[in-house]
Amino acid sequence: MIDGLRRIELVRHEDARGWFAELVRVSALPKPVRQANMSFSRRGVIRGLHFHERGQDDVFVCLAGMVRVVVLDRTSGETFTEDIGDDNPVAIYVPGVHAHGYEALTDCTFMYLVTEEYDRERPDENEVAWDDERVRHLWSTSSPILSARDASS
After folding, report:
1. Lesser CB count within 10 Å: N end or C end of the chain?
2. pLDDT for 89
3. Which residue among the candidates 13, 50, 100, 102 is catalytic per the annotation?
4. 89-148, pLDDT tens digit by residue?
């Protein structure tokens, strides 16, 4: 497994009303969460791959739908992938030095819990192309919907 990467099982406690799950326990993480971000993506969108050089780590959680998380250790070339969301309630803790992103396998609502607040003046965002030879085979699509930034990496 990629150094520092963690799978966090989200145990669902179900009853007639639905279910409840503990999302994250800060004391169990290597660093405290400082910001929570949420996005909605249409099926076929790939967001990433991004990495952070100044120490931001991410906790990825799919709140509704399904996504494929892809992580690349930029030094060793080792990769990790897992489909998470409705059918697999898992959170993924990703040390930010590793390139990371996800593909929306369905329309989805996604949450990023991050260990550093976003700095508009000095963003800590770097890219690895989604179709880099080390990861392109991991996606389910070869013609994703991309942001202008991700399309130019």
Report:
1. N
2. 96
3. 50
4. 999 999 999 999 999 999 999 999 999 999 999 989 999 999 999 999 999 999 999 998
Classify domain 6-151 by CATH architecture. Sandwich (2.60)
Q: Which residue of the set 52, 100, 102, 112 is catalytic?
A: 112
Dihedral, CA atoms, 24, 43, 150, 112, nearest 10 degrees?
-10
Q: What is the pLDDT of residues 12-51, one digit of tens each?
A: 999 999 999 999 888 999 999 999 999 999 999 999 999 9
CA separation for the pair 80, 49 (Å, rounded): 13
- Provide the pLDDT for residue 22: 92
**Catalytic residue check, 102:** no
